[in-house]
Amino acid sequence: MRNIRTRRGIATIAVVAMSGLGLAACADDGGDGGSNEAGGTAPGAGREECADLEQFGDLSGREVSVYTSIIAPEDAVHKESYQVFEECTGATVAYEGSSEFEAQLVVRVQGGNAPDIAYIPQPGLLQTLVRDTDAVVPAPDSVSENVDEWFGEDWKAYGTVDDTFYAAPLGANVKSFVWYSPGQFEENGWEVPETWDDMIALSDQIAESGTKPWCAGIESGDATGWPTTDWLEDVVLREAGPDVYDQWVNHEIPFNDPAIVDSLDRVGEILKNPDYVNGGIGDVKSIATTAFQEGGLPILDGECALHRQASFYAAQWPEGTDVSETGDVFAFYLPTTSDEFGTPVLGGGEFVAAFSDEPEVQAFQTYLSSDVWANEKAIATPGGWVSANTGLDIANLKSPIDQLSAEILQDPEAVFRFDGSDQMPGAVGAGSFWSEMTNWITGAETQATLDNIEDSWPS
């Protein structure tokens, strides 16, 4: 569950940011002492998939070091996806994954031992590294052009700090999903809702049948409460819109702004409604003590019908569960409350930051930001990965839920916003936001909950 590690990593980011470390680190020179120019003809010259890389010449004998939080067994498909790059350029990629990535990357940069490339899973960490060090190198024009061609403006904005573009998007995940049982829906004549009002009407219909429509769990150890933050973020995007969402995340409006109060009350119409929850588990308060991994499992027994959780929840269903449109479980897009704000999508992802401007590094950045890499990665991956790259052929994705995620991300009406708590100061995003939302589930009032989070925002 990389997402959970990412969330806990925010606390580390916050400590670094608040400590005011003046990290006087120097970017790695690529390790070979070479110049910023490579001569000769690229080994893959003339091959269609190498077209973007020919400009970098023959990079044989050069190596690109990559540091990331993506570890075994997920690392194998990443390494496989680099084969085309190595064949096209002659350069090799040295991959290093670490479960302590968020903390160790800062240490390595501080010590002058930065990798050539790092896959950064939070915009906040990218901002900290850019603003507190001189180590991050702006993306070359070839990367900027790829991102302009293959990604939306919202994605490019997350890789931009103080008006300079540094980091192209890599992978992505979609959080705006509701899980359900296609068989249960067919048996009962229930239709997948297209609007929020349709979803509430469906919830009422299911409740009248004697089944609690929703099941949920937010227990996650030290991170207990984070699933409710996703609920609120999704509803703020739908109810108040992306501009208000951005203002809220950046604290340009207070955390307890009336728009946020209204959005949390709308969440409460589901999660704090005793007629709706907690199917197959208990009462409303049981949501706080149910592990998030187990929150949707009652769907398999017909004890509830709906569970809002991200695409990565596909990995939580028991082995042998058919996750497909006609299988045991599948998901639909969390409907909007109106058509005013297009198709809001809440999610996460990684960004490719460079600490060297050597040609092999720029070539690798260019490759990772291309449609070629996105499709190579999809072909290599059995499931559990997707990208917002619009050049990705959805047919290359193996998993139906990944295909649905890609369709949502590639929707021209999609308005993507990164997980809000992952962008807030650690004291809030990985602290009071989680704990106060847990208190809210167990009985605290909406206004008091949001007031307490507002009061905790660092001055």
Summed up:
The protein is an alpha/beta fold and 459 residues long. Helix content is 41%, strand content 12%.
Strand content: 5-15%
Q: In CATH, what is the class of the largest domain?
A: Alpha Beta
Q: Give the CATH architecture of the largest domain.
A: 3-Layer(aba) Sandwich
Class by helix and strand content? alpha/beta
CATH H-level superfamily of the largest domain: Periplasmic binding protein-like II
The ordered string of helix (H) and strand (E) elements is HEHHEHEHHHEEEEHHHHHHEEEHHHEHH
Q: Work out the helicity level.
A: 40-55%
What shape does the CA trace take?
globular
- Mean pLDDT, rounded to whole units? 92
- In the CATH hierarchy, the third-tier topology of the largest domain is known as D-Maltodextrin-Binding Protein, domain 2
Largest sheet: 6 strands, mixed
The radius of gyration over CA amounts to: 23 Å
Q: Which runs of at least 5 residues are low in confidence (pLDDT < 50)?
A: 1-35
Features:
41% helix, D-Maltodextrin-Binding Protein, domain 2, alpha/beta, 2 domains, 459 residues, disordered N terminus
Structure overview:
This protein is an alpha/beta fold and 459 residues long. The protein is built from 18 helices and eleven strands. It folds into two domains: 2-174 and 346-418, D-Maltodextrin-Binding Protein, domain 2, CATH 3.40.190; 177-342 and 424-456, 3-Layer(aba) Sandwich (D-Maltodextrin-Binding Protein, domain 2), CATH 3.40.190. Strands 1, 2, 3, 6, 10 and 11 form a six-stranded mixed beta sheet that branches. A three-stranded antiparallel beta sheet has the order 8-7-9. A hairpin with a 2-residue loop joins β4 (160-161) and β5. α10 (226-239) crosses α17 (426-441). Belongs to the bacterial solute-binding protein 1 family.
